[in-house]
Automatic annotation (TrEMBL), chain A:
Pfam families listed in its UniProt record: LrgA
The organism's place on the tree of life at top rank: Bacteria
Lipid bilayer topology: Multi-pass membrane protein
Ranges annotated as spanning the membrane: 31-48, 60-80, 86-107
Protein name: CidA/LrgA family protein
The keyword Acetylation is assigned to this record: no
UniProtKB keywords: Cell membrane, Membrane, Transmembrane, Transmembrane helix
Classification of source organism: Bacteria, Pseudomonadati, Pseudomonadota, Gammaproteobacteria, Oceanospirillales
UniProtKB/TrEMBL annotation, chain B:
Predominant place of localization: membrane
Membrane topology note: Multi-pass membrane protein
Key word Membrane present: yes
Location(s), subcellular: Membrane
Annotated TM spans: 12-31, 43-61, 73-91, 103-126, 159-179, 191-210, 216-237
The keyword Cytoplasm is annotated on this UniProt entry: no
UniProt entry keywords in alphabetical sequence: Membrane, Transmembrane, Transmembrane helix
Any Pfam family: LrgB
InterPro entries in the record: CidB/LrgB (IPR007300)
Name the UniProt record assigns to this protein: LrgB family protein
Signal sequence annotation: none
């Protein structure tokens, strides 16, 4: 039963998130709002039920697998990507490297100045 | 006993969700094995590898993407509850997140401006088509949000989703090298940078390779980036004179 209870909680939060996103025409996807709803629920309750933790950790362990079906969809756009291939690839690689470096550097600097945050 | 001809059997199998579901799982399992055999290098990410193998398989057996997705959608569907499940690591690390809230927000805005600014600047300089340009712009946010934004500013939504995934695999490949170069060892900082620049793909990578703390901060970055980009991007696009 724990897996069924855990999955029901996750799906219920996603459902509430979808309703909220569509009802208020927000540009944010339902599952992201569902995550916020669950987080608020957990803060109010004060602890994570074992059934929920079991299900969530199982799903998150295989998170990478869940991206595969959408990724295979790239084949549909092979021709469009081919037209601007060099521009797209150079832009993606350079810009992603820059974003990673800038974000990590800024956060690392700011974090070191915070009192009481002593993780190496 | 009569034996059914092989081509008839294939007609049945290729129209059935069972085949693409099984092939997806097998491709992923094989990709994980290959990655492990290569010493777990981030350059040949199991997801990128399984996507390449599956595209090869579909081209080989001449199956179109819609038919494949009939079966693969059962895996795809789990992305929704998995996103909701990110609330649990966030809850576990709530103390540290609350303490670092200011720096996290600031790093997030700086990261988004870097991502969008460098993407538009580079693509403009390299002479990409205007349509490609506007499709590239939202590539640093998680796919469903990117599709919405691309549509709003005049790009191609479904291609935007594909570019988001490409960005994700590039981010995972580059991440470890960049962190070593900048001497960044805090798993929270690594996770946050991965979540911001490589969204869901980066978050999955952070969970699988760095740990739960990195995963939590990565999920936080992904959500925060999505929310903030939806507001910032239309402004930045206008700034570049594209809107």
């Amino acid at each position: 039963m724990p897996l069924i209870m855990g999955m029901s909680v996750l799906l219920a939060c996603q459902f509430a998130g979808e309703l909220l996103a569509r009802g208020l025409a927000m540009p944010v996807p339902g599952p992201v709002l569902g995550m916020v709803i669950l987080l608020v629920g957990l803060v109010i309750r004060g602890r994570v039920p074992d059934s929920l933790r079991l299900t969530a950790e199982g799903l998150l362990r295989y998170l990478t697998l869940l991206f595969v079906p959408a990724g295979v969809g790239l084949m549909v756009h092979a021709r469009l990507i081919g037209m601007d291939l060099v521009a797209i690839l150079v832009t993606l690689v350079v810009s992603t490297a820059l974003t990673l470096a800038v974000t990590a550097w800024v956060l690392d600097r700011l974090r070191r100045r915070m009192p009481g945050d002593h993780v190496p | 006993m009569t034996v059914v001809p092989l081509d008839q059997l294939w007609v049945y199998l290729s129209g059935h969700p069972l085949l693409s579901l099984l092939v997806t799982l097998l491709a992923f399992a094989l990709a994980v094995r290959i990655n492990r055999a290569l010493g777990g290098t981030p350059l040949v990410h199991p997801v990128t590898l399984s996507i390449a193998m599956l595209i090869g398989f579909l081209l080989l057996v001449d199956m179109d993407y819609a038919a494949y997705f009939e079966g693969a959608q059962f895996i795809h569907f789990l992305l929704g509850p998995a996103t909701v499940a990110l609330a649990i690591p966030l809850y576990d690390h709530r103390e540290r997140i609350r303490r670092l809230l200011g720096p996290l927000l600031l790093a997030c805005v700086v990261g988004i401006v870097t991502a969008v600014g460098s993407t538009l600047g580079l693509a403009l300089a390299l002479g990409a088509q205007p349509e490609t340009l506007l499709t590239l712009a939202p590539r640093s946010v998680t796919s469903p949000i990117a599709m919405g934004i691309a549509e709003q500013i005049g790009g191609i939504p479904s291609l935007a989703a594909g570019l988001v995934l490409l960005t994700g695999s590039i981010g995972c490949a580059l991440g470890p090298g960049i962190f070593r170069l900048l001497r960044i060892r805090d798993p929270a900082v690594q996770g946050f940078a991965l979540g911001l620049s490589a969204h869901g793909f980066g978050t999955a990578h952070a969970f699988a390779r760095i740990g739960a703390m990195a995963g939590a901060f990565s999920g936080l970055a992904m959500g925060l980036t999505g929310l903030l980009t939806a507001f910032l991007l239309p402004l930045l696009v206008r700034l570049f004179g594209l809107g």
